[in-house]
User: Fold these one by one.
Assistant:
Number 1:
Amino acid sequence: MSFLSLMVKNPFRNRTRAALAIVGIAIGIATIVVLGMVTGGLQSATTSTLKAGAAEISVTPVGSSNFGSGGGTLNESLANDLLNISGVANTAGVLELNANVTGTSNSSSSSGFGEGLLINGIDSNELSLEGIDSINGSFYTNGSPNELILGSTAAKNFNKTVGSTVTIFGTNFTVTGIYQTGNFITDSGGFMSLNTLQNLTSNDGKISDIAVKVANNANVTTVSQAIQNAYPNQLSTTTAADEANRINQGLGFINTASTAISLLAIVIGGIGIINVMIMSVFERTREIGVLKAVGWRSSRILTMILGESIILTLTAAVVGIVVGVVGVNVLLSVTGAGFKPELTVGILLRALGIAFLVGIIGGLYPAYRASRLPPTEALRYE
């Protein structure tokens, strides 16, 4: 039997103990992988808000949230007035409201904005300002009383395809197209003609916010400030970069939690491996004595025990990675989250690195103890 095969087989002599050690470490590794994949997916979704073609500035009433829920509070004419500000290339008024969707086999599904679906009213020729450049199917016709498009996540949540019918605000609408922008917020909603949504909800001439596209040679921050200066105490602006930074700050808490869990996994895993390897050395005292008696050097004994510890933790890492990857994909699929988790090389290296470190920490003392075992004492051991 080769030295390497001996190291691979030894940790699994006591299968129950090895399995318990692997499960304990794998749980910590799986948690790290899940948090890393979720964070990566959210960061990619956030980056998509800065895509070319979409509006760089969102204009809302002072003191309002960024998401519409109860109707329009701005005059639609403001969208045209903003075109007079230097650096503004294009604008589009948007009316945002939460709506309950009926006539669906999955009516309890949620788009992520509370119960129901976030419906946006905007002229179809301005959809590029919302990051919608292409669609599976066709765009709705402006002024059409029964056409709308759904985001890919919303369509999945409500089990809808092109040609399906949904009932919103007591009116039947035909889904003419399904879009996907990569932005989990936008993909969780739907769009229809601005005039249609205004008429349905008694918001004639009203909008919730204004999407502003900045000219190529203009500075986004400068234009944003100019809008606020032109309409003090009336309009507030948020740039796409501001939104991305705000979301990334929130994701920083997830990264902090992942780091804390990593440290906890090292401590707990290290203690567990120390216990497992000390027991292994104790049970193999006579065997180690025989190996030293036939000429094995102390360094070779130390390498063997340390190698066994590392093999055990790396096995746990593989199990943890598989469980984490499968688990997060199943979880997000079931919950209908509007983004895809991302598995990167960095996440894999982090998981394997932590497992390797746990193996070193947990196996160092037992390996040293085994290497210092006198062969005469070990041979007398019963």
Number 2:
Amino acid sequence: MKSRSAAFVSLVSLAAVCAWAATASAQPSSDGALPTLTAADIDEMFERVSNWGRWGDDDQRGTLNLITPEKRRQAAALVREGISVSLSQDLSSVEAVDNTMPLELVMTAQPGSPVAMDELRIFYHGLTYAHIDALCHARYKGKAYNGFDASDASETGCATSGVEHLKDGVLSRGILIDVPRLKGVPYLEPGTPVLASDIEAWEQRAGVTIGPGDVVLVRTGRWAKRADIGPYSLQGGSPGVHVSALPLLRERDVAVLGTDVGLDVIPAGVDGVVIPTHTVAIAGMGLLIIDNADLETLAETAERLGRWEFMFSVAPIPVAGATGSVVNAIATF
């Protein structure tokens, strides 16, 4: 891997990135199936979309740098009706097939105490709870975002790029990409990839254009399916964003990418890389990721109002050295 500054300076132009994405082997074949990518394909993509050195060799905020004061003002101007929508399921202490490590809530106040108090323990990474990933969460070939060494993460936490670097929060324009609505289905089936072509088709249908500093939320209908059939596991198969969509998001300079699943389509179809979308997005692009958001009420509200952009806000808990934070993001129309 190149040095941080060299990696960014040596990038091809964004036009070349888009041309590469259009011809890469990740594009669907004539029968609609995605061919298997190799680790070499991921190496090439990693270099082409990398943001290493873009905001300085010591940067630990990644694409959060794309959210400018002007972008926040643009987002605030989208608040018209004053309608606020949570993008999180309630955290549950009930074990289920899709909640194998449930929240532990222990009441600590003694009987007769004038106050109630508790302690919480939660394993927030995985496929259950809405959370944001810090930039130290993913690494590739021994390096995290911006070339920081993977050894910076130890039993005491991340020495670099922990979630505390996101403590000022995210406030920007949010855009919902409703893929089930685009395809005329209630939810996507396991293994269904969300491609760059799906994102562009939704832009045309919804009359929105993704731009610099935007928060892009991709709905697969995961929580609608759960409401329909009950708890089910995503481990063996899940819809999600295919890694081949990342060059488009890099071209548009997206600040945050959120989904209602664990981001990656499962199976990912990449030989030798387990979670390629996570890996390239976080370690390569420094792209902030939100997993397991509940986008059902948001989709209903957007459909009713006839607009798919809104003010998005979220504030991670700034635990020094943590690899992320459970969050309750808010969309306001």
